[in-house]
Amino acid sequence: MAFLNLHKGNLQKNYQFLKEKFKEHGVAWGAVSKMLCGNEIYIKELIDLGVDEIHDSRISNLVKVKEINSNIKTVYIKPPSKRNLADVVTYADVSLNSELTTIRWISEEAVRQDKRHQIIIMVETGDLREGVMGEDLVDFYAKIFRLPNVEVIGLGTNLNCLNGVMPSTDKLVQLSLYKQIIELKFNKEIPLVSAGTSVTIPLMLNHQLPKGVNHFRVGETLYFGANLFDESTIPGMNDAVFELCTEIIEMQEKPLLPTGNLAANPQGDIKEIDESLYGQSSFRGILDIGLLDVDPKYLIYDKDEFEVLGASSDMLILDLGKNPKNYKVGDLIRFKLKYMGALAILNSYYIEKRVI
């Protein structure tokens, strides 16, 4: 049976590292929980770290956060849809927004619920995902800053999420300038410039973060210790918070090449034959996970130990050569995971989640 381990000590180490660095730079931050996919065991571990602000893109996950600890500040980190506005206002203290119509609906819903809802306006800075165009921002703010039961507490942006545009000091300075322009024109304070995500952390560590940027939303670096500029592990952090454990369900020596008439497999791939491999064999291990659970390209392993040959919906195939470690049926093969691999595994109903 395959299962996922969360190594509690490694997560605590990463959290403490970030907490100290953000404090050193005078920056507030929240932990992004969307990768945990609403898993109650793991959300409790996140809360137990001492976080006071949790961000998620699924309202059902924020519901669980509030059920566990209603004092946690919850932030909904994508533009709300019309059909989930009531739940957003009920369960999210803050939401990220870029549509005038949606903010007007939020105001109406907040009045109905007799609540005050906080908003961070997302600004387009080049990656072309969500965000108001900079030249439209002042006019946009003018139309919403007096709406009842809505409070604009910040300007924000996302970079590297769609087209891979990296953050830069210039882009972040521009966002800070937008804040200053709005504050001067409307005589209203905007406390936050929420321009920091995991990809921006290296700028902060290298003292390249503009002083105006004072809020971060952090997921990937918290769970993987990742420097997203060069895909290394940040010194002082740990890349082994999550560990996928899979079981060998078949181990046999087999030919390197298939035999028979070849057609496309269910994924649409056609096997290319290297005739020089005819007559050769190796040990093949079959693991109890497949494409339904995770794409093999998101698995991290020692390629000197074995090679992942491919996967079907429910099985992953390894080439172990002459099997020098004498693996056998029932043994566990362990993988580290890339972000998208962990996201898939955590979203899989079929993989047990454990805490170590």
Automatic annotation (TrEMBL):
Any GO MF annotation of the entry: pyridoxal phosphate binding
Key words, A-Z: Isomerase, Pyridoxal phosphate
Keyword Isomerase found: yes
Domain Alanine racemase N-terminal: 8-225
GO cellular component, one term: cytosol
Co-factor(s): pyridoxal 5'-phosphate
Gene3D superfamilies per UniProt: Alanine racemase
Stated name of the protein: Putative amino acid racemase
